Amino acid sequence: MSRMSLLALQLFVAVIALVLWQLLSTVPVFGKMLLPPFFFSTPVDVFSQVVDWISTGVIWKHLLITLWESILAFVIGSVAGVLIGFWFARQPRVAAVFDPYVKMVNALPRVVLGPIFTLWLGLGIWSKVALGVTLVFFIVFFNVYQGVKEVSTTVLDNGRMLGMNERQLMRHVYWPSALSWMFSSLHTSVGFAVVGAVVGEYLGSAAGLGYLIQQAEGTFDVAGVFAGMFVLAVFVILIDFAVTLVERRLLVWRPAGAEER
Amino acid sequence: MDAATPDAIALEDATVAFRVGDSKVYTAVEKAQLAVAHGEFVAIVGPTGCGKSTLLNVAAGLLRPASGAVRVFGQPLAGLNGEAGYLFQADALFPWKTALDNVAIGLDIAGAPRGDALRRAQDWLGSVGLGAFAGRYPHVLSGGQRKRVGLAQVLIRDPKILLMDEPFGPLDAQTRQIMGNLLLDLWSKDRKAVLFVTHDLEEAIALADRVVIMSAGPSARIIGDWRVPIGRPRDISEVRMQKEFHDLHREIWSVLRGEVMKGYAQSAQAGAA
Q1: pTM given for the model
Q2: DSSP 3-state assignment of B222?
Q3: Which residues of chain A does CATH 1.10.3720.10 include?
Q4: Are strands B24-36 and B9-20 parallel, antiparallel or unpaired?
Q5: Which residues of chain A lie closer than 8 angstroms to B151, CB-CB?
Q6: Partner residues linked to B84 by β-bridges
Q7: How far is B137 from chain A (nearest CA, A)?
Q8: Does the beta-carbon distance from A163 to B84 stay under 8 Å?
Q9: Distance (Å) from the C-alpha of residue B107 to the closest C-alpha of chain A?
Q10: Do B92 and A252 touch (CB under 8 A)?
Q11: Which of A112, A234, B30, B88 is most buried, most CB within 10 Å of its CB?
Q12: Which residues of A touch B62 (CB under 8 A)?
C-alpha cells in the first residue's frame, strides 16, 4: 500500500468514528439517544474545549508540567536503571541477593505507591516524578541487565584476544551492548514515564494533564475529560515520534527489523 | 630455519578436561603433543567434536589445560597468549562499530593516536579488498566480507602467531577459495606461525605446511602428522589438480576416515541415549 493511500485510510477511520459519535450523541434513534451527551459528550464540544484551552493558553502550563515530570522521570529512572543493571550483571552475587526483592517491587502495581509518594514528597512535581521513576527504572534495569549478560562470548573473547583489559571491555563491549538493549526499549520506557506523570497527577496535584482530566471528571464535564485525553494522545504521539528519530540515529548499526517495540 | 629458535607454540602433553555435572569429568583432549615452528603453517584436521577448537583455545590461553604445559616462544604461557591473534569461527566483530573502527580497535586500545590508527586500518581494509566498505556496519556486510574484516582486525596488531578456528567454515565453496588465497597471500609477506583448525582435509592440505590429524573425541589424541610436499607460492584451486595433493589426500584420508566414522557413531549414540 502506498504511503498516501495508507494515510487516507487511516484518516477515513477517524472520520467515520467521529461522525458516528456525533450522530449518535445528537440525533435520537427511535426516540432514544444511544450516546447521551451527558455521559459521552460530542466531538464538537470536545473540539471546542480543546480550542478554548489553546486560545486562552491554559493548556500550555499543564502540558509543560507534564512534559517536565516525564523528562525527569525518564532521565532519573534510566540513569538509575543503567547503573544498577550494570552493577548487578557484573556482580552475580549482588544480583542473587537482591533478586527476590527486585521481583517483589516490580510485581507491585505502581499506583499503590502514589499516595506514599504524595505523603513523602508533597503535591508538587516530585511525587509524580517518583512514580514515573519506579516504572521507567525496571524496564531499563531489566534490559541493561539482559544486555550485559547476553554479550556474545565470542565477541568478548575477541576483545580479550585483541588486548582489551577489563576497563576497555567495559567501554567497547559491555557498555554498547547494554545501551543498545536500553535503546531498543526506549519507546516503552518513555511511554511509561508519561504514564507515571499523568497517573501521579490524577491521584493528587495542582497542575498537569492528569490534574486537568481529574478536575473535569469531578465536575461531570465529560467534554473536558475527552479533551484532556485527546491532548494527552497527541502529546504522546509527538514524543513517540521524537523517540523514533533519536532511535534511528543511535541504532544505525542494527540490522533492520531487529528493533523491538 | 634457525634450530636454536624455540617453537612459536608448543603443547606438551596438554590434557583438557571439563567438569560435567557434579562429579563427572569429560576429557576432551588427552596428552596432545604439538609444536608449531616460527613461520610454519600447521593445519589441524579431525572429525566434528574432536576438540580441535579446544586445542586452539588452549594455545590462545582462553582455556587452561588440566595437565601438561603450553609454551610460547619457549616461555610457559600464563594467562592470555599476547603474541597470538585469533580469528574465530563465529562472528566476532563488534556489531556497533563500523568496519573501519572494528579494524582500528586493536590499535586504539593499545594507545595509538586515533588518526594513525584509522589510517592504518584503512590500509588494512584495502589489503583485504574492502577499502570501499570502511563506513559499513557488520550487519550489512556478507559473511565473506565479515571474515575479511576479521582478518584485518587480527593482522593489524601484527601478532607473531595466528590462530584460526574454521574461519572459512560458514562460507560457500567459491568464497572459501578466494579467502584461502587471500590468506596465503597475506601470510607469505611475513610468514607468521599459523595454527589453522578445519574439518576440511582438502583445505588443510592446500593451505598448510603440515597437517595434523586428531582422533575422534572424547579423549581425543593427535594420531598423525604429515608434511605437505607442495611448494609455494600456491594457488588453492590449482594445487588441487596436482598429483602430490592427491597422493597425500589419499594417505591421510585412509587414517582420518576411520576416525570420522567413529566420531559419527559416537555422536549418533549420544543422541540416542
Answers
A1: 0.79
A2: strand
A3: 41-250
A4: antiparallel
A5: none
A6: B161
A7: 6
A8: no
A9: 9
A10: no
A11: B88
A12: 157, 160-161
A137 contacts A81 by C-beta, under 8 angstroms = yes
Q: Tell me the chain B residues in contact with residue A184 when contact means C-beta distances shorter than 8 Å.
A: none
Q: Determine contact: B53 vs chain A, CB below 8 A.
A: no
| Closest residue in A to B57 (Cα–Cα) | A157
Please state the three-class secondary structure of A159-185 as a single string: HHHCCCCHHHHHHHHHHHHHHHHHHHC
What is residue A42's three-state secondary structure?
Answer: coil
Is B4 near chain A, with CB under 8 Å? no
Calculate Rg over the CA atoms of chain A.
Answer: 23
Task: Name the residue with cell 567454515.
Answer: B169
Q: Give me Rg for the CA atoms of chain B.
A: 19
**For residue A198, what is its C-alpha cell?**
499523568
- Is there a cis peptide before residue A255, judged by omega within 30 degrees of 0? no
Residues 6+ away with beta carbon under 8 Å from A41? A25, A222, A223, A225, A226
**Residues of chain B contacting residue A163, judged by C-beta atoms under 8 Å apart:** 82, 106, 109-110, 157
DSSP B191-209: --EEEEEES-HHHHHHH-S
With CA atoms as reference, report the closest residue to B207 among B221, B224, B186: B186
Length of chain A: 261
User: How far is Cα A226 from Cα A203, in angstroms, rounded to an integer?
Assistant: 18
Distance CA(B12)–CA(B21), nearest Å, equals 28
Total residue length of chain B:
273
* Percent composition of chain B: helix, strand, coil (DSSP 3-state, to 5): 40, 25, 35
Least Cα separation, residue A254 to chain B (angstroms)? 7
Q: Is the distance from CB of B85 to CB of B124 less than 8 angstroms?
A: no
**Among all residues of chain B, which has the CA nearest to that of A164?**
B109
* Cβ–Cβ below 8 Å for A155 and B94: yes
Name the residue among B109, B172, B112 with its Cα closest to residue B143: B172
Residues of chain B with Cβ-Cβ distance to A161 below 8 Å are 60, 62, 80-81, 84-86
Q: Options 3.30.1360.130, 3.30.390.30, 3.40.50.720, 1.10.3720.10; which CATH number does A41-250 get?
A: 1.10.3720.10
From the list B19, B83, B13, the residue with the least C-alpha distance to B55 is B13
List chain A pLDDT tens, one digit each, 261 residues: 788 999 999 999 999 999 999 999 888 888 888 888 888 888 999 999 999 999 998 899 999 999 999 999 999 999 999 999 989 988 889 999 999 999 898 888 888 888 899 899 988 899 999 999 999 999 999 999 988 888 889 999 999 999 999 899 999 999 888 888 888 788 889 999 999 999 999 888 888 999 999 999 899 899 999 999 999 999 989 998 988 888 888 877 877 654 443
Report which of B138, B100, B136 is spatially closest to residue B119, judged by C-alpha positions.
B100
What 8-state DSSP symbol labels residue A198?
H
Q: How far is CA B206 from the centre of its chain?
A: 14
Asked whether A214 and A172 are in contact (CB, 8 A), the reply is no
Q: Which amino acid is at B122?
A: Q
A and B: number of Cβ contacts within 8 A = 66
